[in-house]
Design the sequence.
């Protein structure tokens, strides 16, 4: 073998070794490179809880000129939410579909002058009571009605699906055509003013507020001791014990520190009992 051939072979071998070393070196560098550390996910923002309310029941819930939902119930839930460390928003929800919206998960809780009843407890859970109410009869000023039994022969207006509807249905018969059912108590009271019904039975707070703001309607109210006391509660989906516990704790806190009494006085003009 000539010297030229030897040199050429040596040169090729050395070059191949250098390329191989370079490739091995690159492989080690890639293997040794630390994996880029992934940034931790940002903390999840607390979900805003949706509160369903039928905003046609002043002074408990109604809409102001700006379209905002306001009222006694609204102020109570806002104060409870602040104590409980939760964020809420209020959505006007028609009464006829309000319980279904809770059951389907479209609403997280309800506050809408909802009387706590055994029947309702079967499909939803309630907070501790936050307001005591009774049914009240509204009639024209010259009406002879003096007690609940006196409306047996009259056309009576009620809000559909309320406890007023229930008590009148028991007295007159649920399917009695003399019972006229309306989407809201103010609509029933307007019908009374127009002469379409001769009496309206509804929660005392709503009736008293309407009459105070419609003095020209020529109404009077009739109370009856046979009407049982009713308790309003905040409703949550059946089994939502965690949210219910927060609401109950918030209610207890606002009653203990005087916040509830201030809210009550601002809407009803007297300290709560």
Sequence:
């Amino acid at each position: 073998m000539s010297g030229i051939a030897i040199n050429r072979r040596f040169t090729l071998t050395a070059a191949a070794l250098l390329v191989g070393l370079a490739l091995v070196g690159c492989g080690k560098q890639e293997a040794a490179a630390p994996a880029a550390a992934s940034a931790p996910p940002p903390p999840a923002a607390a979900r805003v809880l949706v509160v369903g309310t039928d905003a046609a029941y002043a002074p408990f819930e109604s809409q102001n000129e700006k379209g905002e939902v306001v009222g006694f119930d609204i102020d109570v839930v806002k104060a409870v939410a602040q104590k409980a460390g939760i964020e809420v928003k209020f959505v006007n929800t028609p009464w006829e579909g309000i319980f279904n919206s809770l059951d389907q998960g479209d609403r997280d809780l309800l506050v809408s002058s909802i009387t706590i009843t055994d029947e309702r407890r079967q499909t939803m859970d309630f907070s501790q009571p936050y307001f005591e109410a009774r049914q009240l009869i509204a009639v024209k000023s010259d009406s002879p009605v003096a007690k609940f039994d006196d409306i047996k022969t009259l056309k009576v207006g009620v809000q559909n699906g309320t406890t007023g509807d229930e008590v009148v249905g028991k007295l007159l018969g649920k399917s009695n055509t003399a019972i006229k059912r309306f989407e809201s108590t103010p609509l029933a009271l307007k019908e009374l003013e127009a002469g379409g019904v001769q009496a309206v039975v509804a929660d005392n707070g709503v009736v008293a507020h309407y009459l105070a703001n419609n003095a020209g309607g020529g109404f009077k109210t009739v109370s009856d001791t046979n009407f049982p006391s009713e308790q309003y509660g905040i409703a949550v989906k059946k089994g939502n014990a965690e949210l219910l516990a927060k609401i109950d704790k918030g209610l207890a806190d606002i009653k203990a520190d005087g916040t509830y009494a201030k809210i009550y006085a601002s809407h009803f003009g007297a300290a709560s009992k």
Q: What stands out?
A: The chain has nine helices and 15 strands. Residues 135 and 227 are 6 Å apart (CA to CA). The longest helix spans residues 3-32.
